[in-house]
Structures are given as C-alpha cells and as structure tokens.
Design brief:
about 525 residues, 6-stranded mixed β-sheet, 12 helices
Length: about 525
C-alpha cells in the first residue's frame, strides 16, 4: 500500500474506514472485466407456458401459486445450467405476465434482458400477446430464441406453428431465417436442456462482460410495501458488486444495505452482475424500471435520490360532474409497483365519452383508513385493490361514508367490475325516438297557435298527445304537440300506417300542405 496512504490512515480517527475507502477507490480504478452471465426474459401469450417453463427449470411450483393460473408479476430467478460440454453456466431469468394489461411490464423486462425467449404454444401458434411480446423484443434490440411449447399435447402441430411464425415475419432456422428455435414440453421437460444450450451459446456469441470491482449498478424490477417489514425492492445488478454496509439510491428513494437476499430469499454477503437481489428498508417506494446505484454514505444516497427524482407539477383535475359527463374518482392499491402500473393502464382504457375515471391516488399496500380519508367523503370514489388486503374495520368505515371498495386477485375480473359500475353510473341522455310519420294533406283552420289539419300516416303510429317535429322539404322547422285525433269523424287515441285522419296541433309554426309531422318519444339512454 502507498506509504503516504499508510501514514495518513495511521493519523485518522477511524483507520478501518480509511483503509476500506482506499481499497474501494483502488478497486474502482482497476478494471477486472470478466464474463457476465446473461439476463434472459421469457415472453409470450397468456397461458402459452412461460411460467411452466421456468417452473421446470427451477424445479418449483410457481404456476400453482399464481391467481387464476396466470402470471401477474414480473419476477427474476437465477439458475445454474450444465451444458452438454459439462460447463456450468449461470443464467438469470425474468418471468413476465402474458395478459394484455401487463404490456408495460413486458417492455420493461425486455429492456433489462440480454436475450429473450419467445414462448409459442404448439397448439395455438402466434396470438395477440405473442405479437406484443415480439414488438417489445424488437424495440429492445436483443436477440431471441423461439420455444415451441406444449409439444406433448394431442393437438400440438409443430409444422402449423412454424407456418404461423412465418406468417408473422418470424423466420426461424431452416425456414429462410436465422432465429433459433427449440420444440419443448415445459410440463415434461422435453427439449428444455437444448433450449438452455441455445441460450448459453447465444450469450457466448454476445461476449457479455462485467467488472465485479466496481460498485453495483442495476435496474429496479419490482417494489413491495409490507405493513410489518417495510418497503423492499428487487433489482438486477447490471454491473459491479453489491456488499453490505453500503447505500443504494434511485429516483426518489434510498436505503442502507443491511441485508442482501438472493432470488431464493436466502441472505448472502454479496452479489455481483446479472444477479437479482432484494433489499429491505427503503425510505420510499422505488419506481420500477429506475436505475439504482451504490453509494458510500447515507448522505450521498439521499442526495442522489433527490437529484434523480423527476419532479412533476401536477395541475388539479376537474372532478365535478356535468350533464354529459360523470367523473369517478379512483384510488388504486396493489401488492407490488409493477401491478399498480398495469392496473392504472387498464383503468385509463375504461373512460369514454360519458364516464371518466380519474386516478387521485395510487400506492402499494393494503387498503387502509388513510385511503378512506383520501376519498374525502366523496361517495363517487371507488377504491380498487389488486391482489392486496383490506385492513380491519376499513370496509365498515367505507360503507359508513359511502365509498365503494372493489378488490380481486385477477386483474381482468377487476376491470369487469369497473365496467359494471361504469354502466350503472353512466349519465342518461334524452334522445328522440321516432315512432310515426304523416304527410299533411290540407290545412282546415288556424287560430291562437292551434291548427286543424288533414293528414295521412305514411309510417308507424301517431298518438294523441305526441310531440312532433314539423318537417318541410326534408328540414325540421319546428315542433308541435298533438292535442286531438279524429278518424272517420270519431275521436281516436291513435292512427296507424295508411290511415287518413284529422288532428289539432299546437305549434307556433304555420303548417302547410306537403309538410310532414314526425311523432317521437324522448327516451333516456
């Protein structure tokens, strides 16, 4: 060690800290680039077997724990794969939701990854979310492999699936393209080792590298608030190493690194590039997709969090109903930050020309008393909870103040509930529904806005008491009201198509022979 440094540290009050800071700075100036394990995102249409594939690879039962059997979170897992050559390769997998609501999470997963696996069912071929997944892959400019799954099922047809891929401009090897593919059964494991060999080969060709001597830098994958434990966040280390005793800072949030949990939940002393890690103790909920960095001190981490936070000036939105528009204030609560983003995306699509959903608050965690307070006694407010609990006594409090709470563990069921509420709260519009047309044959008398005319019903029915539009040469020129009807010199309650009749109409418009009277009813819709 440098003699000046030794003398300086010997004079320092905290010699241990002095030497450690010198070591850290020395490490940062000495590049030790090594091979970096690939980060692989698994994408595809809902129920095509993404989670089942990871389930087999990890030898765990992820699928059974997912609500409705579909993935609704972004998760990261680390595995060791032994290739045919006997080499052990570390691979980090990102599992993403297939449901259309989670497009943002799929895009985020693709942006984090080095390689993508596009899972396509051998029964169904390319579907809607397959195309969305492909767009995310192309936008992220990463190579990908196609996994043709469910080859063990009776209806599986690899040839038809390859044709479906080609029809969607996914050209695989042997079919005029260069995209590798592997027929697999995620359920039985057929073809999975070969798929992982392709991943290892693709990673080798990319020459991925990292420097473990640098302080860690990564991307937030998911964030969660627990009432007892506090806020935790999972991020994937893109470069460098993470050790205890340091600090992390990201947009609007920071935390000391007191403990590091790996993808299995086990505590580890340190972690390096491509590893997903979870850190507990954040001062605020980190934003998913944000960059997170290591800092030596709390002060530096706090400063970085403040500087990197995007401060937006929000303009208060109009929350008053009008005759044609109903405003529904919404408070969104979810178990994790990624799900909150997906929920907000779905709610935004529900507004139409007569009902507008306005998100006044979105947060991670259980539905609590503060959420009721935030509603401000406005009984139009709906609190929407996705995959989260309702604290004791909160539902009773909500009922007292008239605030609606809707919760579910499956996102599309929540949107169905909101669609039903939208239909109930939609403002009614009065529309004119035509039910009869008559042609004026003759004007008999007129006095004090009351006119006696003879006419013939051309279509439908004219009723006594009807409101009518008076139409001349195809243009409505005014309105009137039927005061009396006569047919064959007898009073009548209504006259039907083909009938000639006499009628007294009250109107300020002078009716003339050749005009039409169009009877209508005002219907609320």
């Amino acid at each position: 060690m440098n003699r000046i440094v030794i003398e300086s540290c010997a004079l320092a009050k905290d010699t241990k800290k002095c030497y450690s800071q010198f070591s850290l700075k020395t490490a940062m100036t000495t590049s030790r680039t090594t091979e970096r394990p690939p980060v692989v995102v698994v994408l595809g249409h809902v129920d095509h077997g993404k989670s089942s594939l990871l389930d087999f690879i990890r030898k765990t039962n992820i699928v059974a724990g997912e609500a409705g059997g579909i993935t609704q979170h972004t998760a990261a897992y680390e595995v060791i794969h032994t290739t045919k050559a006997g080499d052990e390769k570390r691979i980090t997998f990102i599992d993403t939701p297939g449901h259309s609501a989670f497009q943002a999470q799929r895009e985020r997963g693709a942006s984090l990854a080095d390689i993508a696996i596009l899972v396509v069912s051998a029964e169904d071929g390319v579907k809607a979310q397959t195309k969305e997944a492909l767009k995310a892959i192309i936008a992220s400019n990463i190579p990908y492999i196609v996994a043709i799954n469910k080859i063990d099922l009776p209806a599986a047809n690899i040839e038809t699936t390859l044709n479906s891929l080609a029809e969607n401009e996914i050209y695989v090897e042997g079919r005029g393209g260069s995209i590798s593919y592997a027929p697999i059964s995620a359920k039985r494991g057929d073809g999975v080792p070969e798929l992982l060999d392709l991943v290892a080969l693709m990673a080798e060709l990319q020459e991925l590298s990292g420097d473990a001597s640098l302080p860690a830098e990564g991307i937030i994958v998911e964030a969660h608030r627990d009432p007892q434990k506090g806020i935790s966040a999972t991020f994937i280390i893109k470069n460098g190493s993470l050790t205890k005793g340091t600090y992390l800072g990201t947009a609007g949030a920071w935390t000391p690194v007191r403990a590091i949990a790996d993808s299995t939940g086990a505590n580890v002393e340190s972690a390096t590039f491509s590893s997903p890690v979870t850190i507990l103790g954040w001062n605020a909920l980190p934003r998913t997709g944000a960059t997170v960095k290591v800092y030596d001190s709390k002060k530096e981490a706090e400063s970085a969090a403040m500087l990197s936070e995007k401060r937006e000036i929000s303009v208060p939105e109009q929350l008053e109903d009008t005759n044609d528009m109903t405003i529904i204030p919404i408070i969104l609560k979810a178990d994790v930050a990624g799900s909150l983003d997906a929920l907000a995306h779905e709610v935004a699509k529900l507004s139409d020309d007569r009902v507008s959903f306005k998100i006044i608050l979105k947060d991670v965690g259980a539905v609590g008393e503060n959420d009721i307070k935030r509603a401000g006694g406005d009984n139009r407010t709906i609190i929407v909870g996705f995959n989260t609990k309702i604290e004791n006594g909160v539902r009773e409090l909500a009922e007292r103040v008239g605030v609606t709470i809707e919760t579910d563990t499956i996102i599309y069921k929540l949107t169905e509930k909101l669609e039903a509420l939208r239909a109930v709260r939609r403002p009614k519009r009065m529309v004119e529904e035509q039910h009869g047309t008559a042609k004026v044959l003759k004007l008999f008398a007129a006095a004090h806005n009351k006119q006696v005319i003879g006419a013939r019903v051309e279509e439908g029915t004219i009723n006594n008491g009807d409101t009518v539009n008076i139409v001349r040469r195809g243009e409505a020129i005014g309105k009137g009201k039927v005061l009396e009807l006569q047919q064959s010199k007898q009073k009548a309650s209504s006259v039907e198509q083909g009938s000639e009749f006499g009628t007294k109409i009250e109107s300020t418009i002078e009716i003339a022979a050749g005009d039409q009277i169009v009877a209508f009813s005002n219907i609320a819709r």
